[in-house]
Amino acid sequence: MIHPGGRGPALSPAEAAALSFAAVLLAAGASCSFSSTQASSSSGSGGQGQSGSSGSSGTTTVVIQPCTGKCADFPSAPIVTGNAASNAASMFGGSGSAAAPCLTEPEDGSLFPNNWLRPRVKVSAPGATLLEIRFHADMEANDLLVYTAEDNWAMDNTIWKNLAAHVVNLPISVSVRALGSGGLTAAATATFTIAPVAAGGQMVYWALRGFDASKPDNEELFGFSVGDETVQSVLKVADVQQTSSGVSVGCIGCHTATPDGEFVGFTGNYPWPNALASVEGGSRGAMPGFLGAAGVTTLTEDWHGIITFSGQHWAAGDHIGITSQSSDAVDAHANLVWMEMDSGASGVLARTGDPAGAAAPNFSHDGTRVVYTSTNANQDGRMGVGTADLYTIPYADRAGGAATPVAGAADAAFAEYYPAFSPDDQLIAFNRLTQADASVTPTGEPYDGGMYLNPAAEVWVVPGAGGDAVRLRANDPPACTPAVKPNTRVYPDKTGWDNSWAKWSPEVGVAGDSHYYWLIFSSYRYDISPPRGQLYMTAVVRSEVRTDTYPAIYLWNQDLTTSNHTPAWDVFKLPHVD
């Protein structure tokens, strides 16, 4: 199966040719005259700092701690850091008339979980040598003033924890002025809000390094818990103990979590068998104990796709995985199949009324439904060039049943694909493109273009039972963000962000009548050249009368030198980060 960034080894010549686009994903660089670091802060615990969380899987309402009078979370004296001169404050007299810097973090209007990675301010300001950063909250006695000669600054951890305990559901403003060859700039401004709930779980993502995705050493899974300021390696290709017909796995892409959090299921190297491997500390790469020879044989049949699981069907004699089953690399009539991995039993799930093929299934958490992509474009188990709409079927004890289009996500004018149920099954996140975009292969090859690595892809959300689909505000980066060409091999002149592969946090936070959902996704908006995928988080908040979406939050703990994709967010049993 092809996944964002490339394929595994043992490819046909045509497929191997398709890998060359991976070169555009990688290379380092920053569009700023500052000393650019992963994350700097006055506390010294920046991009390679300490873990901020042990990874609690619970999502709890926060008890707001009132202050006596105004809060004193912000110090009265400015913070001078990042090689700024001790007299930096004296250089910012007046209002400034040069063009404001491009403030990319935080994005204006973003919503932070109460226990999230501490907020970072980042700008792009060519020619600038010094920044003045000001935080303001009406509840605080002081503004927080920071002077730095670097292009980013992350809030001190103590300040962040105190602020998150006091200033909840209220706007916090950020303004940034720069000083450089053009003089003092006007201020760039944004606001963000801290939610009254925490987020839980752990995130595991696929990272590609180097220029050749067919080399197993170039891909790796990394993971972290909510609040962690660094990421850790959780699986390399060489760690995987399961084989396919005696051949070692050469790819670990398009992974999903098993319900116990101990393993990832993924698609191996061409011709795309499935595999399971542990990400738990002490058993990295191991197969599940229940997976015997018969289960391995079923799991590793050729031409599988993305695999999905449900906690309601993850027990002895009922370890169920659902995936697509094609007859060849390109199959307009691929089936959905269930696999019981203890015994190796398997069968086709009926999709009565849907004449198209199937791809990218997602098993509901309550174990009663499967949402999938009804498509004529199943290409190596992922999405290729053609049509795509979301359908659901009942699981019905491995029988399947009537296929029902998901209202709001089965519009003939669009391609809708890569669905994911929210943890309460009340929402479905999915990718969306215009059908005109999805039907085009600029190179003339079926494995290029269409829905795969398309710059125009966006993330939408629809009720789990169907209804009005909502476009996420997180699809749009700040207006000052420069245009990006994510896939120049296929689309030499096409700009966009390729927002893709959204996955939900494992629990829903509740405060009053509001339900807080968190999503992680990949996007090419980050100001690095050449562009490559990076991970972002966003919120969807539902109340009795409305659904609100929010701009994205960049995960500054990830590695900028790798292209990062296909995140999974679940209750993984990752090794503890000290």
Keywords for this structure?
578 residues, mainly beta, Neuraminidase, Immunoglobulin-like, 2 domains, seven-stranded mixed β-sheet, six-stranded antiparallel β-sheet, 4 helices, 5% helix, disordered N terminus
Topology at a glance:
Blueprint: H1 13-18, E1 79-81, E2 102-105, E3 110-112, E4 120-124, E5 128-136, E6 144-148, E7 152-154, H2 157-166, E8 172-180, E9 183-184, E10 188-194, E11 202-208, E12 219-225, E13 232-236, E14 243-244, E15 247-248, E16 253-257, E17 263-267, E18 274-278, H3 293-299, E19 320-325, E20 330-331, E21 335-340, E22 345-348, E23 350-352, E24 357-363, E25 369-375, E26 378-379, E27 382-383, E28 388-394, E29 400-402, E30 404-405, E31 414-421, E32 427-434, H4 435-438, E33 458-463, E34 470-471, E35 500-504, E36 509-511, E37 514-523, E38 534-542, E39 547-549, E40 553-554, E41 563-570
Parallel strand pairs: 1-6, 3-10, 23-29
Antiparallel strand pairs: 2-4, 4-7, 5-6, 5-8, 8-9, 8-10, 11-12, 11-41, 12-13, 14-15, 16-17, 17-18, 19-21, 20-26, 21-22, 24-25, 25-28, 26-27, 28-30, 31-32, 32-33, 33-34, 35-37, 36-37, 37-38, 38-39, 38-40
